[in-house]
Amino acid sequence: MGLFILKRIGVMLLTALCLTFVVFFLTNLYPNLEKLAKTQGNARMTDAEVSSWLDNNGYGAPMLVRYGEWLGVVPGWTRTDEETGEIRGRCIDFGDDPAEAPRFCGMLQGDLGYSTVSDDEVSNVVGGRLLLTGKLMGWVLIVMIPAALVVGVLAGMREGSRLDRTLSTASIATTATPEYVSGVIFIVLLASSTAGLSPWLTENGWIEGRTLFLGSARSAMEDITFWNFTLPVMTLALYGMGYIARMTRASMAEVMTAQYIRTARLKGVKFRTIVLKHALRNALIAPFTVIMLQIPWLLTGVVIVETLFNYNGFGWTLVQAASNNDIELLMSVSIVAVIVVLATQLISDIGYVYLNPRIRIS
Amino acid sequence: MDPITWTGSLGPLLNPLMLAAIAVFVLGFFAQLLLNFAGVQPGEVQINPDHTLSVARSPNDYALMAMKYSVLLFLACVAVFIVGGIVQPSLEQKGIIGAMGQRFLPVWIAMILIFAVSVTFKRRLGLYGKLFDSPIGMVGFFLVMFWMLTAIFAGLVATHGAIDVVSQMRNEVPGSFMPDPDEGEYLAYLLGGDNLGRDVFSRMVFGAREVLKIAPAATLFAFMVGITLGLPAGYFGGKLDTVLTFIANLVLAFPVILLFYLLVTPEIVASGIPTYMAAVLFLFPIIFFVILFNSRFFTQPFTRNIYIFLTVLIGGWLYLGLAWNSDPLGIISMPGNILIVFVSVVFVNSPTVFRIVRGIVLDIKTRDYVAAGQTRGEGPWYIMLWEILPNARGPLIVDFCLRIGYTTILLGTLGFFGLGVSPESPDWGSTINEGRRLLTIYPHPALPPAIALMTMVLGLNLLADGLREESLRD
Amino acid sequence: MAEDTAYDGPILEIDKLSISFFTRLREIPAVMDFSANVMPGEALGLVGESGCGKSTVALGVMQDLGVNGKIVGGTIKFKGRDLSEMSPEELRDIRGSQIAMIYQEPMASLNPAMKIGKQLAEVPVIHEGISEEEAMKRARQVVEDVKLPDPDRILKAYPHQLSGGQQQRIVIAMALMSKPSLLILDEPTTALDVTVEAAIVELVKDLGKKYGTSMLFISHNLGLVLETCDRICVMYSGEAVERGSIEDVFDEMQHPYTQALFRSIPLPGADKNASPLIAIPGNFPLPHERPNGCNFGPRCDYFEAGRCDAGPISMAQVEGNDRHATRCLRFQEIDWSAPPILADKKEKGVIGDTVLKVDNLKKYYEVAANSMFGGADKKVVKANETISFEARESETLAIVGESGCGKSTLAKVLMGLETATEGQVMLDNLSIESTEIQDRDTKTVSSIQMVFQNPFDTLNPSMTVGRQIIRALEIFKIGNTEAERRVRMLELLDLVKLPREFADRMPRQLSGGQKQRVGIARAFAGGARIVVADEPVSALDVSVQAAVTDLLMEIQRNEKTTLLFISHDLSIVRYLSDRVMVMYLGHVVELGSTDQVFSPPYHPYTEALLSAVPIADTSVEKKHIVLEGDIPSAMNPPSGCPFQTRCRWKSEVPGNLCETEVPPQRTMAAGHEIKCHLADDILAQMDPVIKIAAE
């Protein structure tokens, strides 16, 4: 088991290294750097000025060296200004003594760089945003997983029954509704002052504000309430829910046709006991993996929902960083995303082994 | 002039009926759910002495029957609206639903033809024919065909151009009349105007064309890539499998949205990366077909050479045009922004296909007919492509349908973030994105594309579900 | 349960039972007009080919027919009470406590995520309401009863930690937890190896006696029923065709189907050339294509048009025998003792020169613990150890052994799918042991071909039958044009006695036997000189087995093929082979002509194997040798002699020779070799296992 985890972590690190390099490569392509130079320096720079600006700011080195610097395994660049004799460098903060500055300053040293958009240290930006998204994700998981499992188990325990058909069709419908569609429909139905339920409710004086739910989750960043957070959570939970429910149903249906369920039935075990004691444990092995792998999948949804509902979390930051060419911020965002993906994969692997006695004990 | 009503002259007659149908359906649904949880079983099938069956009905069955008939009533009302729309002369009488029904006339005719032919010959049509045994599959097929035909007949169905702007129609509600229509121009914006004064209905119709131009083709390419790599990975195993699986997992571990944001930007297009990626990815179909024919016909060199020559000729021509934009005849080309969208979608989808194919191969390669092929000295590629692949078609077809749906969602996501599409494009994702800014005040521009996208993906999912169910039933 | 003991009528009364399955299109009758009684302490065997409805009867008794199955007529009474009139609660009370069932697949019958002890204890907890602790004690007791070693460890184990034989013992233990009055066994040993099967059968018999349980034993194997049951009921296509006591049915059969069934299975003493098996002509009718009148009519030698196909036929009592009945109109007119009309006797093929010579062949596999990083700990599996034998033209060499004995690996090495680790394989004078199949020339490849075990797997489901044979012809470079190859393909279909229309059919339209014939045609497409047949008939029904076996023999005679017949079924091996090679854990333990191997002196393993095979003949007396334990894993073989862990003669060998040294190959007589440490005089003392009682 220990060896297994070690190997998994080894593969994870390798994956993380590859992925971050790809991101680094794509964000540091010349056109991006040129754009950066023009936004940082002067929009009307000539090509020669651009390349000298890049050179002066450490972007002139080969791609691999710069990746190493960012990672913190290659010493940060330093450059002496020929006119003033001032030493500047990657690791030298403005006004600090160059002699006291560390040689390495990269991700491994905890230095994630400086965000040009937010005008702040990247680590400060990402932390707060992550917390906000964490809250959102937490609520989504709390709503989504139990609901999906219950639906899946109910549908799968009697395959082909009406309950199964109803619930399966409903799950298919939710998987066919991406967040930007369900979000729009929810807003129109529940949070629009001109359409859906709200005008009717206001007319009858049943709600105080103009809309039932709030169409924007901006206020939820300070204070989460039922009225401002329901729609984003619902939107996000709905799309993932159908998928997990269908997986659970398939797994449950398969288990229910297994010979040992028939054995249990012919032993005289009650149907309820069969489902709870004999089937559930075996049926939940597959969905567990799916749930864990679903979490990184939710990331796309998070980006959409945070954009749609104006919630300045991690996904919103990603959009900002990407559309404003904020290279350092984007790098950190990708790191976090990659870590989330790999961590969930690891947990799903370990959990699978743990849940499945056939693998655990051998 | 007042806008057209939704239901026109038939409304007063049919609206109460439709409302009643909805009410009965909802009541029936909850009644059935409650009865189910209360433990009321569906009626038992009784066997009479003469071996005929009769059903003893329970309250549960009545609730279900009520639901069934309310759905039928609702559909009948819709049908009457559409027929009314086709028959009645003026727009006011047709109502919005009727008028739209009339615009879709070519779609209806083609649909009736397809269904009539398919149902008549369903026993001779293999898996496709069996689809018409499953209600779910038929509904799915209907939805998919509806949008397919709409895309084909978009020019006939749409009332206006996708980018025709009439500034007075900005944010007008559905059914609004044009201020001063030209001769022969359609009199109203059936689903209203968007924030620039374009016709929402027409944009939705043309959007179907945009989506269906890319999604199936991109999925097909993803399948080619996934199959060409998945087959050897599963069949040979070993180092090759380890390396390919690692790369596939690498791509899968990449958050899709981040990848899109990195890939689908003007800067990347300028760097030429999409062309290189296309150059690699588009090579796979040619490789696939060359190996396919070579492994099958290597015992008859003449036949083989003909096939391979044709593949390389046609494939090479398309390849030059699509990937390098240097078709010597100048017919085939793909604009840079579409190419990058296409390539990214293929790139994101192929690892999943790879994993599915690899899994199926691992299962099928233990079969005796594979061993029989090996013991008569067949090459590995013959076994993979002609012994294993045809027997994997069931799950692959099902996944193909699902994946087109997923690709449609991805394209929508791209449009939603305004990535890779021209700003004027009527594709559903961008239209939703444009509409959402004023969503709480003017919901009508964003809703139609949202519903269109949802029904099409739903149709694909239902189709896949029907296919899966029918292919298992043997 | 005091009130139950008072009841002394039949435990189970099935009266005119009819069961149908309902599909979207039609009603499919699975069982029709079936009657049977099981008295207390009695064991009833239910015999028939696959699809005859025997398992449906069992499920009908359990009232567990699924959503589509319905009882459409008749009654099933358990201790006088009609089961179909019971409420679900009453049924649940009876299931597991009074009627218990044992299935074919032991692994699938046990919940993989639940400990054995818990699964066992569940039964009395549900039915008798005793405490968990007490139930555990009971479980331990029963586990001991089914003779499992170390019960405490087993109770705490998960199912996958036990071997197949142990799992089946657990399933039996579970069925016996509440001391049921009726035990239903549905092919309980089909998935097990022969020697393990013998032990399980022994156990079931003993426990049945000990607990006084009545049994309903479902099997396709007549020999097994003979060994376990008191009474038998033969089923054909949904109907019981004959029922009576074992002796009556086996010795005085009164139904043509029963007779045909017995004539199509090889019995000791039968010879392939002198008295070939008689296959039942035609095919098993599909449920919706059953003929009018007698279901067996179209395949029956005694069929009388206008009478047998007139209308439904009911069971008729056979006078003079105890509860012996048959569903035949003409049973009183038929001379049951008349010898079968034999097709002309076949000339035995003349055995020619040596074609294949295997010398000192070894095949080791390296199994890595983890392939991701080329894991450090590697294990060597010795699949084949020093195998030497020769095979001559027109000769049938049988390779016999249970799972894990290395027979399939041997086949793979011969075919070139694997290369040998050491030793030599000579085809004519060409050494091929290290030439992989891709590197072999077309002639070599087409000379050695294979017939596979599973008929449902042997043909590519998405290619027509003709296409598949033509492909083999293409690969073997036979015929210059497509048309020539098509002609040759049709000739091959003739060779395997399939109609030429089959060329354009898809495999799913063929029955199992027909598919197997196509497989044979494909193997002979390139004029194969050596055919490796890997259990070619074991997955087929008895009546079809005979036809396919005879076909194989006939082609062999005509083509002078060398046949390597891999099998675990000693009856069929004895019937058709010239020489036999017995394998155990990768070693050849005995090699000799059929007569030499089947008569003493035996290798101890051969002796046990012979004794384990059930024989459907009441005149045969068999020594009962039950092997302890299971076959060791090839990953972790015992030291010294591979068989020493289970050998009953081990004590006759002085010292610990068996545990330390691999025995040498000893020549007993010309061409008869045994790998054993036993002294000559002890080997000479061995009695024959099978004795045919004097008539």
UniProtKB/TrEMBL annotation, chain A:
<dbReference type="InterPro" id="IPR000515">
    <property type="entry name" value="MetI-like"/>
</dbReference>
<dbReference type="GO" id="GO:0005886">
    <property type="term" value="C:plasma membrane"/>
</dbReference>
<feature type="transmembrane region" description="Helical">
    <location>
        <begin position="224"/>
        <end position="245"/>
    </location>
</feature>
<dbReference type="GO" id="GO:0055085">
    <property type="term" value="P:transmembrane transport"/>
</dbReference>
<feature type="transmembrane region" description="Helical">
    <location>
        <begin position="12"/>
        <end position="30"/>
    </location>
</feature>
<protein>
    <submittedName>
        <fullName>ABC transporter permease</fullName>
    </submittedName>
</protein>
<feature type="transmembrane region" description="Helical">
    <location>
        <begin position="178"/>
        <end position="201"/>
    </location>
</feature>
<dbReference type="InterPro" id="IPR035906">
    <property type="entry name" value="MetI-like_sf"/>
</dbReference>
<feature type="domain" description="ABC transmembrane type-1">
    <location>
        <begin position="130"/>
        <end position="348"/>
    </location>
</feature>
<keyword id="KW-1133">Transmembrane helix</keyword>
<keyword id="KW-0812">Transmembrane</keyword>
<feature type="transmembrane region" description="Helical">
    <location>
        <begin position="284"/>
        <end position="309"/>
    </location>
</feature>
<keyword id="KW-1003">Cell membrane</keyword>
<feature type="transmembrane region" description="Helical">
    <location>
        <begin position="136"/>
        <end position="157"/>
    </location>
</feature>
<feature type="transmembrane region" description="Helical">
    <location>
        <begin position="329"/>
        <end position="355"/>
    </location>
</feature>
From TrEMBL, chain B:
<feature type="transmembrane region" description="Helical">
    <location>
        <begin position="400"/>
        <end position="421"/>
    </location>
</feature>
<keyword id="KW-0813">Transport</keyword>
<keyword id="KW-0812">Transmembrane</keyword>
<feature type="transmembrane region" description="Helical">
    <location>
        <begin position="141"/>
        <end position="163"/>
    </location>
</feature>
<feature type="transmembrane region" description="Helical">
    <location>
        <begin position="103"/>
        <end position="121"/>
    </location>
</feature>
<dbReference type="GO" id="GO:0005886">
    <property type="term" value="C:plasma membrane"/>
</dbReference>
<dbReference type="InterPro" id="IPR050366">
    <property type="entry name" value="BP-dependent_transpt_permease"/>
</dbReference>
<feature type="transmembrane region" description="Helical">
    <location>
        <begin position="71"/>
        <end position="91"/>
    </location>
</feature>
<keyword id="KW-1133">Transmembrane helix</keyword>
<feature type="transmembrane region" description="Helical">
    <location>
        <begin position="17"/>
        <end position="38"/>
    </location>
</feature>
<feature type="transmembrane region" description="Helical">
    <location>
        <begin position="306"/>
        <end position="324"/>
    </location>
</feature>
<feature type="domain" description="ABC transmembrane type-1">
    <location>
        <begin position="208"/>
        <end position="464"/>
    </location>
</feature>
<dbReference type="Pfam" id="PF00528">
    <property type="entry name" value="BPD_transp_1"/>
</dbReference>
<feature type="transmembrane region" description="Helical">
    <location>
        <begin position="441"/>
        <end position="464"/>
    </location>
</feature>
<dbReference type="InterPro" id="IPR035906">
    <property type="entry name" value="MetI-like_sf"/>
</dbReference>
From TrEMBL, chain C:
<dbReference type="InterPro" id="IPR017871">
    <property type="entry name" value="ABC_transporter-like_CS"/>
</dbReference>
<dbReference type="InterPro" id="IPR013563">
    <property type="entry name" value="Oligopep_ABC_C"/>
</dbReference>
<keyword id="KW-1278">Translocase</keyword>
<comment type="subunit">
    <text>The complex is composed of two ATP-binding proteins (NikD and NikE), two transmembrane proteins (NikB and NikC) and a solute-binding protein (NikA).</text>
</comment>
<dbReference type="Pfam" id="PF00005">
    <property type="entry name" value="ABC_tran"/>
</dbReference>
<dbReference type="GO" id="GO:0016887">
    <property type="term" value="F:ATP hydrolysis activity"/>
</dbReference>
<keyword id="KW-0406">Ion transport</keyword>
<keyword id="KW-0067">ATP-binding</keyword>
<dbReference type="InterPro" id="IPR050388">
    <property type="entry name" value="ABC_Ni/Peptide_Import"/>
</dbReference>
<dbReference type="GO" id="GO:0005524">
    <property type="term" value="F:ATP binding"/>
</dbReference>
<dbReference type="GO" id="GO:0005886">
    <property type="term" value="C:plasma membrane"/>
</dbReference>
<keyword id="KW-0547">Nucleotide-binding</keyword>
<keyword id="KW-1003">Cell membrane</keyword>
<keyword id="KW-0472">Membrane</keyword>
<dbReference type="InterPro" id="IPR003593">
    <property type="entry name" value="AAA+_ATPase"/>
</dbReference>
